[in-house]
Structures are given as C-alpha cells and as structure tokens.
What does this fold into?
Amino acid sequence: MGEQKSNTWPGDGAPTLFDLSPRQPTARQVADLIRADRAGDPSRPPALPAAARRADDARYQEVTCRTALNRVRGMPFEWTLNPYRGCTHGCHYCFARRYHPHLALGAGDEFASVILVKVNFVDVLRRELGRSGGRRELIGFGTATDPYQPIEGRYRLSRRVLETLVENPAPVGLITKGPMVVRDVDVLRDLSERTACTVHMSVPTVDEDAWAALEPGAAHPLQRLRAVRELTDAGIEAGVLVAPIVPGLTSHPARIERTIKAIADHGARFCGAVVLHLDEGTREHFLRFLDRGFPELAPRIDRLYAGKYAPRRYREQVHRMLELVRRRHRLPARRAAPREEAPREPPRAPRQSRLL
It folds into this structure.
C-alpha cells in the first residue's frame, strides 16, 4: 500500500479513528507551516501540500476560521466580513497586500497566487449573528479582499453570507470589482427588503491602458458598470467607488471625466472616490511595479508619498475636481455614514497639478 498523507497540521492532535476526511487547518497553522519550511530560504515557494492549483494557476488552501465578524474602529462601519484572504484580481495598488505577510506570505505575487478559503465561514457567521442579541450594526462586506473574485463561483461563500444576513437582517455595504455579484441579485433584493443593503462597485478608471496595467486579473471596467446597471434596474441600491485614483495614471482630468460620464450613463445611484494611499507592504510592491512599467513615474510617486497618504492639499485638489465633474453629470456623492463629516464649502475650480 502507498503511504497515506497525514491530515494533521502543526498544533493539531492526531486524527481520530473515523476521521476519514482531510482536516482543514487554521490560517495560523498555515502561517506556522510556511515559516518553518522557509526558515533556511525565504524565497522558496510556500509548502502547502493540500492546496489545490486551478486553471488560473493560483493555489487555493482551504482553512477554518474561529471568527467571521471582525470589529473595526474609526471606519464608517462597525464590522467587516471577508471569507477569502488574497485575491486573484491582483490589483497592484491593493491596500490588503499588507496583510499577506501576517501569513508568512509575500505582499507581491503571492497575494494573487495563494488564496485562503475559509470553508466554515458561513457556519461561524450564523452562530455569531445568533449571539448578537438583536443588535444590528453596519457591516462592511469585502473590505479586505474581493468577495466576488472568480473562486466564489466554486465555493459560493459570499452568496451564503448574504442568505445568512437575510435570515438575520443586518445592514451591509458590499464592496467588489466582480460582475459575478449579479448572480445574487435575488438574495440582494430579499436583503434590501429587510434592511439597508448597498453595493459599491469599484471602478478606478474606464481607461483601458490603465486598467490593464493596474488590475491584471479584474474584469473590464465596462463589465462592472453593466453589473451596476443590472443591480439598479433590479431595485438594488448600487453605485461606484472611483477607488483609488492613482496620481499620474488615472488622475488626468480627461480620464476622470470619461470615467464619471460612464458611471452616470450606467445608472449608478452614487459615486465616491478615494485617492491612492500606500500602506507598508503595498508601497514596496507598488513602487517595484512602477519601476518595471512606468519608470519615469516611480520617483515622482515616491516623492509625493512621503508617508501613507499624498499631501492633504493634493487630495483636496483632486476631490474638488471630482465634485465639479460629478455635478456636471448630476451624480450624487457616496452616501455618507452618520459619523462622516458633513460637506464643507462648495468646491471651487482647482488649479492644475503637475501630477494630474
């Protein structure tokens, strides 16, 4: 007989006599295994013998989680839900790259090629909602990695999350780049009848060159906007986040004008925007990406981002320009959460920035 693979992981006890199915590890156990395997050579591919490699050449490791709802502070929502870690959209600017090193994985290519799938996520969420005692605070769904990245078509975790929220109504704001969200329009409609439900589709630009460079694994921007149209036609509150605006790549006034016009033409209920910010981990990856593809821009971005954010004056200038374009197309800004600041003075026409 051939040797059987053990279904134990670091920190586990021995499998029980009748435990015939593979045991999924926790994310911490996966990280411990990778650290131990890479102790002598950090550049080695991660040792994940149970991970499945699929047609997109990414490796998918099933894991179990202890919690589903994650409490956050200082955000326009109180809780987050993220059934996956890592994302095959592979957006070079993604702030969630900073979290992959917590798993002993790289913030670069491994962010898009090693994906953790929390297979017990929905069961854990159902228990947590059952213990909440009727409290219903706003949930941000998909705040770290995309809940409608392609592997969702196989696991259907995000659909089951929405079904669970229908059973235990809680207000939710869903953030995605995945047109697959229209698959779940029936559940979104049911949820909208019971509580506040908003879909935020991320479309940083409709410029094809910028899209292809910045978001190598994400759907075409017009596919995403068609999904917004389908959602709003079904009565779902859906809009667009122009996020992030990348200085020098998507920030040119003509590109922003085309993007906002396309958003308005596709029936978005609102449009918000965020200027690029570079967290530790993301910053290093993004500057390497610029060095390879846009070497003339890399030193300018490095100077502009002395810290995590671009200077306040630059960000305010971009947002004034955006507000003028939004008003021209009669497109409301993103719905403000109760704790967000009220608008200040009406925007004035901005002076042209060199990076714009």
